[in-house]
Specification:
alpha/beta, 5-stranded mixed sheet, 15 helices, 414 residues, elongated
C-alpha cells in the first residue's frame, strides 16, 4: 500500500471523489500538509434537496481544516460543484467530509467537541490552534442540533435547582430527568424564579413531553418555585430534598455566629467548624473550637446543636418514624429559642420547616432525591472556575448541555 492509498483510507474518500495531489509546506510553522480532492470528470452529483443524480453546473474551490497529520496541520481543498436539478434548480452539493458552511472537516469537529467537554474551551482551542470563537461556533451548532431533537415523551420525574453563572446575582436554573442514570440535564434557562418553571413547561411541550405526565418534582423551598409548580404542574407531587433542609439550618447557624461574634470573642476556627457535621472531617483546631463553644454556653453552640439533631431525623427508617422524629425535633428546637434573640435565624428556619413539613416527609415515601442535582452543580461550578467564567449566560448553558445533557448520539452522528 503506497502513501496515497493510506491518505485516501484515512480520509474515508469514496467515488466520485479522489485524491489528486498532496504537498507539504515546510516554509510555515507548523508545517502544513495540503490535500487536493476532485471528482471524476463527467460525474453525477446528488441534488441537495431531492437526491436526484444531476450533472454539475459549475465549480467553486473550498478549503477545510482537517485533523493534524502527525505534527503537521492538514488542510483539504476541493472544487465543489453546484448541481442543475430540473426540479430544484442550481444548488451547491454537500461534501461527505464536512457540514455545510463549516471550515472544518467532520472529524476535526468531533475531536474539538470531545476536547471541549473535558477541558476549558480556551485551552482546547489553543490545543487545536484555532480561536475560541470558532470552537464555540462548533459547540453551539452541534449542541443546539442535539437539544432540538431531544424527546421528552417519557419524562415523569424532574428535579431542578439554580446555580450561579458568574459572580453577583446571576443564575441559571437547571432541570434534570430523575429517571435518567447518566447525563440527566434536559433543560437550562437563565434566572431563578417562577418564570423558569414556565419556560421549562414550554420547552417540554415542544419536545413531545406532556405536563400532565409529570408525577413528581424535587426542589427547594423557594416560594416562587412552589407557586409556579402549583400553577404549571398541579397534579405533580412535590418533594423538598433533605439537602435544602440542612442548608437552611446551616445558614441559620452561620447567621447566629456572625451576630454573636459582634458581641463576644469567638474561639479560633469556629467559622468552619460549625458548618461541618460533628466528628466528620474536623481538624484538631475545629474540634477544639466546638468544645470551647459548647463549654462557654454561647448561643452559636445552641444553634449548632439544633442543626446536628437533624441527622437523627434524617436516618429515620420509616415514614412514621420520620414524622415522629421531625415533630420531636421542632418541639426540642422551640424549647431552645427562649435562650436569646440571637437565635431568631433558627426560629425562621423552624417556621420554614413547619410550613413545608409534608413536602419534606415525602422524602421517605419517594424514591427520588436531589443528590445528583447537587453533584452536577458542583461539576458545573468547577467547569466555570476552570474557564475563569464564561462570556455570557447562554455560553454557560451550552457548556452545561455539553457536559451533562443526553447527547449520546452527538459524537457518533458527526
Amino acid at each position: 500500500m503506497d502513501a496515497e492509498q493510506v491518505l485516501v483510507l484515512g480520509l474515508g474518500i469514496t467515488p466520485p471523489w479522489r485524491l489528486v495531489s498532496q504537498h507539504l509546506e515546510t516554509g510555515k510553522h507548523p508545517h502544513e500538509l495540503h490535500l487536493h480532492l476532485d471528482a471524476d470528470r463527467g460525474s453525477l452529483f446528488a441534488c441537495p434537496d431531492c437526491g436526484r443524480a444531476c450533472k454539475a453546473h459549475d465549480f467553486a474551490e473550498f478549503r477545510w481544516r482537517h485533523l493534524n497529520f502527525f505534527q503537521h496541520h492538514c488542510y483539504i481543498t476541493a472544487r465543489v460543484p453546484r448541481t442543475d436539478c430540473p426540479e430544484h434548480g442550481v444548488k451547491r452539493v454537500q461534501v461527505p467530509w464536512a457540514r455545510e458552511g463549516s471550515g472544518f472537516t467532520l472529524l476535526f469537529e468531533q475531536v474539538a467537541l470531545m476536547l471541549a467537554r473535558e477541558m476549558p474551551v480556551q485551552a482546547a482551542a489553543e490545543q487545536m490552534a484555532i480561536t475560541d470563537q470558532r470552537l464555540w461556533r462548533i459547540i453551539r451548532h452541534y449542541v443546539g442540533k442535539a437539544m432540538a431533537g431531544l424527546d421528552l415523551a417519557d419524562l415523569k420525574a424532574v428535579a431542578f435547582d439554580e446555580t450561579a453563572s458568574k459572580r453577583g446575582h446571576n443564575y441559571v436554573t437547571i432541570f434534570i430527568d430523575l429517571d435518567r442514570k447518566t447525563r440527566p440535564v434536559v433543560f437550562a434557562t437563565p434566572g431563578k424564579g417562577k418564570e423558569t418553571v414556565s419556560r421549562f413547561n414550554d420547552f417540554l411541550k415542544t419536545h413531545n413531553g406532556k405536563p400532565g405526565r409529570i408525577a413528581e418534582v424535587v426542589c427547594d423551598m423557594s416560594p416562587a418555585f412552589l407557586a409556579a409548580l402549583r400553577e404549571t404542574f398541579p397534579d405533580a407531587s412535590v418533594t423538598v430534598d433533605w439537602f435544602h433542609v440542612v442548608q437552611l439550618f446551616t445558614k441559620a447557624v452561620d447567621d447566629v455566629r456572625k451576630a454573636e461574634a459582634r458581641l463576644v470573642k469567638m474561639p479560633s476556627a469556629v467559622r468552619w467548624a460549625v458548618l461541618k457535621a460533628k466528628e466528620r472531617n474536623l481538624t484538631q483546631k475545629q474540634a477544639a473550637a466546638l468544645a470551647e463553644l459548647e463549654a462557654g454556653g454561647l448561643l452559636t453552640a445552641v444553634a449548632w446543636q439544633i442543626k446536628e439533631k437533624l441527622r437523627w431525623v434524617r436516618v429515620a427508617p420509616t415514614l412514621q418514624a420520620a414524622k415522629w422524629r421531625l415533630s420531636h425535633f421542632i418541639r426540642h428546637a422551640r424549647e431552645k429559642l427562649g435562650l436569646g434573640p440571637l437565635l431568631e435565624p433558627v426560629q425562621t428556619a423552624i417556621e420554614t420547616v413547619e410550613k413545608h413539613k409534608e413536602r419534606i416527609l415525602r422524602r421517605w415515601a419517594s424514591t427520588y432525591s436531589n443528590a445528583r442535582m447537587e453533584a452536577y452543580n458542583g461539576i458545573f461550578r468547577a467547569a466555570r472556575a476552570r474557564a475563569r467564567g464564561y462570556r455570557n449566560v447562554q455560553t454557560f448553558i451550552t457548556m452545561i448541555y455539553l457536559i451533562a445533557a443526553p447527547l449520546g448520539e452527538l459524537f457518533n452522528s458527526i
